[in-house]
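hiii so my PI (J.) wants the whole complex modelled not just the main chain, which honestly fair. so below is everything: four entries, each one labled with what it is. i double checked the lines twice but i was tired so who knows lol
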Amino acid sequence: MTKALPFSSSPGAERYIVPGLQRGLQILRCFDRQRPQLGAPEIARELGIPRSTVFRLMQTLEYMGLLEKVDHSSEYRLGIGVLSLGFEYLASIEVTELARPILDRLRDETGFSSHLAIRDGQDVVFVVKAAAKAAFASSVTIGTRLPAHATILGRVMLADLTDEELRNVYTSEELPRYSEQTPETVSALRTILDGDAERGYAVSAAYFEHGIGSIAAPVRDGSGRIIAAINVIFQDGKVDGETYIDRVMQAASDLSRQLNYHPADGKQERRSA
Amino acid sequence: MTKALPFSSSPGAERYIVPGLQRGLQILRCFDRQRPQLGAPEIARELGIPRSTVFRLMQTLEYMGLLEKVDHSSEYRLGIGVLSLGFEYLASIEVTELARPILDRLRDETGFSSHLAIRDGQDVVFVVKAAAKAAFASSVTIGTRLPAHATILGRVMLADLTDEELRNVYTSEELPRYSEQTPETVSALRTILDGDAERGYAVSAAYFEHGIGSIAAPVRDGSGRIIAAINVIFQDGKVDGETYIDRVMQAASDLSRQLNYHPADGKQERRSA
DNA sequence: AAACGCTGTTTCAAATATAAAACAGCTTGT
DNA sequence: ACAAGCTGTTTTATATTTGAAACAGCGTTT
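here's the output for the full assembly
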């Protein structure tokens, strides 16, 4: 009786699942910005797990430092243990270290907040950020997830996928909308992506959110695959975004080069493979 | 047959432990900066868990997005799922949001890297960082753990503990040494802490690491307890650290005030309670 | 004040995950 | 070429975890 899909998932890897572990992790994922602290009964109801089992799982999570009791109430919040895990992850990804100085320079050159994001399934996840000094700063923080098909950043990464891969990511043809510009179907998305792929960048105003414009360009590694994307965001209307396309593309290609990508290698573009 | 203590642990909370969950989390904790990718057999040996069990646990972790297969090898590395968890944690802690601008200003005023850290058991954990622009920048990243008794930051936080609480944190009298200045015993540490508590700050050169000096001051919340500490680090000898004590203490007290701490409230100092 | 609902915690039979063993595939050495 | 060792994966009896039920404690309500 496996329930709703977790984060992402390699296709067909659900053969041997340890319920204790799976459910413990589901409990952790119940906590977020909106609901930073929760009690055991609440979680039991939400996940459909018996009270006594949730009780034991949460006690284990507390023992391991991933949950902590909030003061004298019987509620829990995320423990500091999860923080260490998260940052071991960041440290283990080469690209984040290399990206930092590049994003800083891009931020200084443009005056805009710049970000590096990677894709996880249907989501874009921000992993490095260089915040603009101006009052207008982006609200995204490291770890923020946004729908890939509805963001410029996501589009330049999705553009690398073959039709088959894209259908694997989006199993349903219908796509949730976030603005008038969000494509409604996978087919419509495909058309947009083909344009992005040809241009090698994407730029748009108010694509995901009203009043915010963005330019994004893809980052490739030695194999030629797109593994991340860089963007800047700006207040829509206030500037002509197009002016900065070159800067963003330059930053992305600088990073790609550091990751051993050689455009002239004769590596064929991924999509035509 | 419970094994070595995990991260931290509320005393005596090990009654109901779910083995599947505990071992899965132990597996995650095997991954760190030094060993970013590991195979199942290696982990099985290290944790003393049967191969077939580790196999299933890791498959579950992969399914949940906390581990991912590295390319075509049979090894795994941390997955992007842990990142989200870590940042939900940061977002859930009020103090980190408030600290950021204060650390930025402290960095600008002093030219040094400044940090906010909290204590988890015997460890100091860095949660916010404002990196100096100078070439000499600190090597600590968010999530870094250092031994509390051997760092200035840790000392100002430990100074808040009663004798009994301190003995609870350090069950053995002997303390590991990291430099000539590290106290060797809990009693010696207590003496140092009493001085720190009285001064309200701590400053030292080469206390944890050769060539690095640090000044730290405690951050209190509305209850008067020390919940975090702020520090700056500088190259030892190059500057007279003492010069910046006021700046650091000011930053710490600014943050305390934003956390509802009122020095004149008649709240008695914690240690004399 | 009794009854009700909601907890946190414990118990114990029943359902389940576990771990030894075995298999197949792959490298290594001799 | 063979054996020996290492893997990833699967099987299956056994040992364990699970979850319904029950207990005790609390606050409300009637």
